[in-house]
Amino acid sequence: MAQRPRTARRSDPRPRARRRRAVDAKTWIANAEALGRGEGELVALFAEPDRVHMALRDVAGTRLLTLAVADRRYPSVGARHAPAIRLERAIRDLFGHEPEGLPDTRPWLDHGAWPLAHPLAAKRGLPAKSRGGYEFLPVEGEGLHQIPVGPVHAGIIEPGHFRFTANGETVVRLEARLGYVHKGIEWLMQGAPIARAAMLIGRVSGDSTVAYAYAFARAVESALRLTPPPRAVYLRALMAELERIANHLGDFGAICNDATYVLIHAHCGVLREQVLAACDAAFGHRLMRDCIVPGGVAADLSAAEARRLKALVDSIAPRFRELVAIYDDAPSLLDRTVTTGLVSAELVRRFAAGGYVGRASGRDFDARREHAYPPYDKLGLEVPVFEAGDVDARLRVRLREIEESLRLIRRILDALPRGEVRAALRGAKGEREGVGMVEGFRGDVFVYVRLSGTTVVRCHPRDPSWFQWPLLEVAVKDNIVADFPLCNKSFNCSYSGHDL
Amino acid sequence: MRSLLFKSLVKDPVTIAGPEAEANATQELARTLEDLSRRVLGRSLVIREVDAGSCNGCELEIHALNNPVYDLERLGLKFAASPRHADVLLVTGPVTHNMRVALERTWKATPDPKWVVAVGDCACSGGVFAGSYACVGPVSAVIPVDLHIAGCPPRPIEILKGLVALLDAAARNNGAGKGAVR
Question: What is the bridge-based pairing of β-strands B115-119 and B88-92?
């Protein structure tokens, strides 16, 4: 259990001019190579018709590098730093830019079903010729068989395809194929007024609608140099913590359910339901969708609802602890979760995997503390970090975070400033850009936005799942097929947030 | 664990209860559903959920139907893993081009008689994603839809109400055929 002192480096996640730099190919390559050597972390990698952007974090803080794309080619980051590979496959599909040296040039988001190719390029292409099947990486060895699963899954979950190669019961390789729920969100945002873009961003990933709206609002406010009213700042954090608790409770129950502990699942379901009902009463929406808007929040919290939320937190805490005690005291349950689905600290660091996936394998990062965006700079935050890297550790991170969120909600409600909850948006002259990074329940959500007046020119939301999905493939290796649901739920990656 | 089990002996169920409370829609729906589903399909209606491009918001609320507060199964409704066991397809999302084939195949794999319920604004109309190069459009653009349940996402109680409307219409047809009940 490691905890970084509160005086940890705090870098402003909002890039002002000094944090954004147009670079040449040589500098671009040097930075990619530095990432490959582990001297920094890749935060995001995205494109425009005439350029590519790389957001990275190192000792100097968080920076954004921009490289002009000539002849639709640029030097691949993935060739030098593997976590970038899927991001570059997506860039290739959407923009037609060729990342030179990219080791894996199979399409990623484009399944050959769109009516056109390179939908976000300056000049769109003709639809891809029917590519037939997708070539999974070859697996060789004796006694191997394949188990294809999806895209339509057995449960009520999102679609994606998992190709297992197993030897008897043991998984020797898992390869995921994603992109099934690609909705063209980045394209829809181009040229959209801020209000419509805010609605789209709130629908990138339903379970993180607050986190996305929050990050987008911060990005827009950063671009427009706008400070939201103090009360709105606190209400946003209140919603973010409620969203975190609701999701973590759902995951706690779902993981136990997969290990046949239906009792915990049922109780977590009740607690989650009470949180969502309280959110509905307080903010008018169970998932708090469209409640955070650029400039502030859409509606104020009444005094009566604030009291009710406090009562809810007080009533949940003891019941939740009782469930944790059951988990701790159930050898048959721990037998399923301890040492299952291991992810090494080294891999988590290399992929800069956020959220419980990172913190269960020793990566001490939480955007709420690292970027200390208000009001978290005033709330204090204990970030639980475990080293074991198994299903149990990923669950325990969540359990500690629920406790911490309950504490934060009490503090927020006690310290809630009075006043306005929304500032008017005024478009600036010329183009303005900004980024926002917010810690969602799953990990750090990053949003880049560039505005012209009050119109979105370009927006890129990066889900934490981009850097978690590849690690799931590693986690399940050498586990039995029957433990895959446990591994998968302990990750709970987003399909929609990733597919965009 | 012992204290938790003991509490369950003395506490009221968390399942929305109390027939005298008119706010308690679930209990009313339970009676209606039970009666109708018995007439139509011998007291059971099996549902297969298909995410055809959703943001996952609708899935969260459909999932909630299984929790002890809504407890779908007491009504004779149940989610199945396979479309081959299903009477109803509950479809979400602004059907993406990448999910179109999977949705069509799921529909074909579901035995007749079958009903399709489009859940959520995206499934009903394409929602905020309408017009995207990546989306086909509403579910009805791909397979015939019998019922639309709007909302972004609809609350669990609204999804339950929608299922009742479907059963009402199915019962009117005596289960022999099925008609659109928009």
Answer: parallel
